[in-house]
Design a protein that fits this description.
With 221 residues, this protein is α+β, with helices and mostly antiparallel strands. The chain has one domain: Gcn5-related N-acetyltransferase (GNAT) (Aminopeptidase), CATH 3.40.630.30. Helices cover 36% and strands 26% of the residues. The protein contains seven helices and nine strands. Strands 1, 2, 3, 4, 5, 6, 7, 8 and 9 form a nine-stranded mixed beta sheet that branches. Helix 1 crosses helix 2 and helix 5 crosses helix 7. It is globular. The chain starts with a strand and ends with a strand.
Length: 221
């Protein structure tokens, strides 16, 4: 049984290589074990390069065990409407084409790099990571988020009360069937308010344009 520490850590720039390696290895471990060392190396470099490009506009949250090994990760980007998002690169979908521009939007976000260790036993880890990622949307109430979601994870999200909208056909990405989705406050609020208590409330930043100011985000017991 793998036990995580009782806090989330915001990943720093010098840890991006560690994140990329974790995300790629866990994706293939969950979905496709028949992969070469070169494929792993190539995909890890691609993920690293992409996250380095996004870093100034993103926050990455990880859970670690007592040895400092990553057990789970998630990343959220605040879109500047100029940067080319994964949604555009992988699916050739223009986010502006699927937004309801007749509604007032405070911001547009992208959620990605969700991964957990295959042997993880912490049943709340997914919820804790997701609360961190969707807090900006749910606190502002007028934002929207995009994501590329593994088909198995999407089923779990729906079962947990996260309502999503599929906005395109699936593709194979990092070893699994991946589906483009959008998420609004209305579809996220039930999950968010039911699980917000898992992250200490003082760390949920309500300031527009910010996600979390503090370095660590303690779980409540």
């Amino acid at each position: 049984m793998t036990i995580t520490q009782n806090y989330l850590e915001r990943l720093e720039l010098d840890q991006l290589t560690e994140l990329a390696k974790f995300v790629v290895e866990e994706n293939f471990s969950h979905h496709c074990e028949d992969v070469t060392t070169q494929e792993l190396a190539n995909d890890t470099q691609d993920v690293y390069d992409e996250e380095l490009n996004y870093f100034k506009d993103s926050e990455i949250f990880v859970a670690k065990d007592f040895s400092g090994n990553i057990q789970g990760s998630i990343r959220v980007i605040k879109w500047d409407y100029k940067m080319r998002l994964p949604l555009q690169k992988i699916f050739d979908i223009d986010p502006l084409s699927v937004l309801n521009l007749s509604e007032k939007l405070s911001s547009v976000w992208h959620i990605g790099r969700f991964a957990t260790r295959k042997d993880i036993k912490d049943r709340t880890l997914f919820k804790r990571l997701m609360v961190c990622a969707i807090a900006p949307i749910c606190e502002q109430k007028t934002g929207v988020a995009f994501a590329e979601c593994d088909s198995k994870l999407l089923r779990i999200m729906n079962l947990l009360g996260i309502k999503t909208e599929v906005i395109g056909a699936s593709v194979n990405y990092l070893g699994s069937e991946t589906i483009p989705i959008s998420m609004s406050y209305e579809g996220l609020k039930e999950f968010y308010y039911n699980n917000k208590y898992l992250v200490t409330s003082q760390y949920i930043d309500k300031i527009s344009g910010q996600i979390f100011d503090n370095k660590e985000y303690n779980y409540q017991a």
